[in-house]
Design brief:
Elements: E1 2-7, H1 17-31, E2 35-42, H2 48-55, E3 60-65, H3 70-83, H4 87-91, H5 95-107, E4 112-116, H6 121-124, E5 131-136, H7 142-150, H8 154-177, E6 180-183, H9 186-196, E7 203-205, E8 226-230, H10 236-256, E9 261-265, H11 271-274, E10 292-297, H12 303-307, E11 309-314, H13 324-332, E12 336-338, E13 355-356, H14 360-372, H15 374-391, H16 394-397, H17 400-409
């Protein structure tokens, strides 16, 4: 089949969850003999080498720059409040992208337009006589809804609640207009079916998967005392979770383990997170990173940080879909402590391949259990790596995409 594949982020390199999802779906479709044309927004840090890699298995790759600024965000926020539209959808409405997709559909016959994430759905609705599939990485409206539940500022809470309502309306209508919708979790499928009012048969569930062989176990230091948080820090649920851990949980850990340290890694950390690591000069060697909080921002090579990490924590209270970071940590062989929301959508076994805790005291106790009990840490490490290889290998699980495309062609 001829597939026009639309992505909001360039799906390479594999340094974020949405990229991982899109990349391995693209790889699978190409390896099944489909002719795939990729259309993607790009950012300043996307290089020609990244595009060239994707050209290695796509028929063609077309890119357009993603234009973002505080001025544009403020304008779209005002427009969304006045017109009742979702802010995050209005912000990513781009006439140049709309024109590019229209030209490609007019110039060549495509069998399927594949929209990766809700943001790209608006561009997939052009053209006649083409089937449409939407890959929903999240039930997106749940992200502002959960953020609003933890927001103390009344004005911000009102804005988040209003965004939730606008997104739910938009997301429900979009699901109706696609021939098929794929969710990454059963929870998301039920939520999307609820807001769209259509039967769950309209949806499939295919989890996000990785290549377990591409993530080798790290050789961690025997005396590792650092706690690692990893994620794009401009994503509000990640930032909110990191701040909660640093302010509410980490001090409890330090009371019992005074030399424990915290490293928060992620692109574009907001001021509140960046300020956590501003005291003193940044350490230059691994053996100097004992105690305190370190916020290095984006890190190209995670190996030195992984080697000195005793625990990988996922302190999320908002968000949706799946956390690829947990799949990665299982592959790396680092014991994981997560909230229930952080592990949502994953097949986990509390106490066997992960520890689950939700309030600050319970979360701190779980972290300290891992740091003090080497047998528990080794068990979590071994079981996690075996589990991800069995349940989340794209080369086996993504055969389910063949059923989706067979339904579209039928």
């Amino acid at each position: 089949m001829r597939i026009l594949f639309l992505t909001q982020v360039l799906p390479y390199p594999l340094n974020a969850g949405p990229k991982v999802r899109a990349y391995y779906v693209l790889r699978h479709l190409a390896e099944q003999g489909h002719e795939v044309t990729l259309v993607s927004f790009v950012r300043d840090d996307d290089s020609p080498e990244h595009v060239a890699h994707l050209q290695g298995f796509c028929r063609a790759v077309h890119t357009l720059p993603m234009r973002r600024s505080r001025f544009r965000d403020a304008r779209y926020l005002a427009q969304s409040l006045l017109m009742g539209r979702s802010f995050i959808i209005a912000r990513d409405t781009d006439q140049a992208m709309r024109g590019l997709v229209s030209r490609l559909l007019a110039a060549r016959r495509f069998d399927v337009v594949h929209a990766d994430q809700l943001w790209m759905a608006q561009y997939a609705l052009n053209g006649d006589g083409v089937k449409r599939v939407l890959d929903e990485h999240n039930a997106v409206y749940m992200i502002p809804q959960r953020l609003a539940q933890h927001e103390r500022n009344p004005l911000k809470r009102w804005v988040l609640q209003r965004e939730t309502r606008a997104l739910a309306r938009y997301e429900g209508e979009v699901c109706k207009r696609f021939n098929h919708v794929v969710a990454v979790t059963g929870e998301d499928r039920a939520l999307l079916a609820g807001i769209s009012g259509i039967d769950e048969a309209h949806f499939s569930v295919i989890p996000i998967c990785i290549d377990p062989m591409a993530r080798r176990p790290v050789m961690r230091r025997a005396d590792a005392k650092r706690i690692l948080i990893l994620g794009t820090m401009f994503y509000p649920p990640n930032a909110e979770g990191a701040l909660w851990f640093a302010r509410e949980v980490f001090p409890l850990v330090q009371r019992d383990v005074p030399d424990a340290g915290l490293t928060i890694i992620g692109k574009n950390p907001p001021a509140g997170i960046a300020a956590l690591g501003t005291a003193g000069e940044p350490p230059t060697r691994a053996d100097e990173r004992e105690g305190g909080v370190e916020v290095p921002g984006y890190v190209g090579d995670l190996t030195p940080y992984l080697e000195e990490s005793a625990v990988f924590v996922v302190p999320l209270h908002a968000g949706g879909g799946m956390r690829v970071k947990i799949l990665d940590a299982w592959c790396w062989g680092i014991p994981i402590v997560s909230t229930t929301v952080g592990a949502e959508g994953l097949a986990v076994r509390d106490g066997e391949n992960i520890l689950i805790a939700d309030d600050a005291v319970a979360f701190a106790r779980a972290v300290m259990r891992v740091m003090k009990n080497r047998d528990l840490a080794q068990s979590l490490r071994d079981n996690g790596r075996a589990w991800v290889g069995e349940r989340y290998n794209w080369r086996t699980v993504y055969r389910q995409w063949d059923e989706v495309y067979a339904r579209l062609s039928g």
